[in-house]
Amino acid sequence: MSTVYSQFSELKRRLEAREATIATVGLGYVGLPLALAVAEAGFKALGVDIDARRVADLNAGKRVISYFPENKIADAVASGRFSATSDFARLAEADAILICVPTPLDAAREPNMAYVQRAAQAIAKELRPGQLVVLESTTWPGATRNFVEPILRTSGLERGKDFFLAFSPEREDPGNASYTTKTIPKIVGGDDPRSLELAQILYSSVVTKAVPVSSTATAEAVKLAENTFRNVNIALVNEMKQVFAGMGVDVWEVIEAAATKPFGFMPFYPGPGIGGDCIPVSPVYLSWRARDVGGEMPLVDLAVRINTGMPRAIRDRLGTELAARGKSLAHARILLLGIAYKRDVEDSRESPALELLALIEEAGGRCDYHDPCFPVFPKTRDHAALEGRRSVALDAEAVASYDAVIVTTDHTKVDYALVADKARLILDTRNVLTKLRLAPTDGRYLKA
Ligand SMILES: NC(=O)c1ccc[n+]([C@@H]2O[C@H](COP(=O)([O-])OP(=O)(O)OC[C@H]3O[C@@H](n4cnc5c(N)ncnc54)[C@H](O)[C@@H]3O)[C@@H](O)[C@H]2O)c1
């Protein structure tokens, strides 16, 4: 029996018997739920993160993600099947290594692969024959093969022969109560049959279904296609929102009615722009890679422009509405309701509310925020000057004191009845007050 075959068959046996140790590099919104799902499936899950504090919190069983069930992490630690470390040398213990580190944009709004590079370099140092490495971070088609694989090969080992390599995009939707890591099917792509087979065996033991595709680049493209589809459709409804408003038509009412068509229409909702580290970022990765291969994606680029332009459009609308009420934005006090990029999640990455806040202040207005998920303004790359600010208390006196309140995030733990009662002017970018049947009808309420 050849060495290649015996390495493959031994790893296959260990995965099928759930005897394998699975390391997850990066224990954030994606890596942590995945590591816990791996442990729940019966594997030994080793989480590896450069953030020593997070590692210590996890080993102490702390609930580091607020929407997790109370004892989820403590139970996993107590089971003996999950532990965390910052010691990359322990990757040698792993049969499979899943990479879940960030893939944001750099200052020039181009793919920032530095986290993946550092993780791959750390893995290459520890790589041993018979291990499976899977990249999960969202990235451009070709990155696993042309970016990660060459780094892993600096170990002197060959892919498909000594070690195995696959790409499986994360489809986690933080805070979604209907779909969890385990119940979302997982795409799996490999560039050789053994890598694909091993990755398929691993994921079909952890999640409801593993869906194989023919290459890592195809799997990478699937993820970008999904996210770009959303970005483009959201741009479309954001554009419709503005022109329908000019026609006296409410876009949300149009979408709800159109969604009653049982085929050919899928509802997407407008908002203050798009946040998170996925939907706003993926189309940029795709379009960047298109240029790399001599192509262009004007539709995608336009969608990104429309969505990133939303905070400015809302700021301008605010200025116009205040002026119509005899008030200048330059001297106004504004309250933003929500700086998280989406409901009930303590995540503000790429949040359009942060941009809106900065734009209002750039125009001379003073802008405070209230957000139950952010008692203190988060650390950000683009808004460092705002750090140290605190969420203001949402009481009757405070709400009434602002010239306008803008609903930027539809958090559930907000007293919208109080806002409807006391605010002088409300710009609702999420249609929340209408949905809750709280929208004032005396001219103080506008959808934006
Ligand atoms: N958050 C989402 O909703 C979501 C959904 C689908 C896909 N993704 C993708 O998943 C990937 C991870 O995103 P996330 O939201 O989990 O990020 P995150 O910022 O929540 O977590 C990343 C973690 O990786 C750690 N880390 C960074 N560099 C490291 C290194 N070299 N070695 C070990 N750990 C390191 C950080 O300390 C952090 O704990 C990204 O590519 C993202 O685009 C995210």
Kindly list the characteristics that best describe this protein.
about 450 residues, alpha/beta, Rossmann fold, 5-stranded parallel β-sheet, 13 strands, about 10% strand, binds nicotinamide-adenine-dinucleotide
CATH superfamily of the largest domain: NAD(P)-binding Rossmann-like Domain
CATH architecture of the largest domain: 3-Layer(aba) Sandwich
Could you describe the largest sheet, including whether it forms a barrel? 8 strands, mixed
Q: Structural class, judged by helices and strands?
A: alpha/beta
Q: Average pLDDT across residues?
A: 95
Order of SSEs: HEHEHHEEHEHEEHEHHHHHEHEHEHEHE
- Total strands: the figure is 13
Q: Helices, strands, pairings?
A:
Elements: H1 3-16, E1 21-25, H2 31-40, E2 44-48, H3 52-59, H4 72-78, E3 82-85, E4 96-99, H5 114-126, E5 132-135, H6 143-153, E6 164-167, E7 186-190, H7 193-206, E8 210-213, H8 216-246, H9 251-258, H10 282-292, H11 298-308, H12 310-324, E9 333-337, H13 352-362, E10 366-370, H14 396-401, E11 404-407, H15 416-422, E12 426-428, H16 432-435, E13 445-447
Parallel strand pairs: 1-2, 1-4, 2-3, 4-5, 5-6, 7-8, 9-10, 9-11, 11-12, 12-13
Antiparallel strand pairs: 6-7
Helix pairs in contact: 1-7, 5-6, 8-10, 8-11, 12-13
The structure holds nicotinamide-adenine-dinucleotide.
Question: Would you kindly provide a written description of the structure presented here, covering whatever features stand out?
Answer:
This protein is an alpha/beta fold and 448 residues long. It folds into 3 domains: 3-213, Rossmann fold, CATH 3.40.50; 215-308, Rossmann fold (3-Layer(aba) Sandwich), CATH 3.40.50; 310-448, Rossmann fold, CATH 3.40.50. It has 16 helices and 13 strands. It has an 8-stranded mixed beta sheet with strand order 3-2-1-4-5-6-7-8, with helices on both faces. A 5-stranded parallel beta sheet has the order 10-9-11-12-13, with helices on one face. Helix 5 links the parallel strand 4 and strand 5. Helix 1 runs parallel beside helix 7 and helix 8 (216-246) crosses helix 10 (282-292). The longest helix has 31 residues, at 216-246. It is elongated, with a radius of gyration of 24 Å. The structure holds nicotinamide-adenine-dinucleotide (NAD).
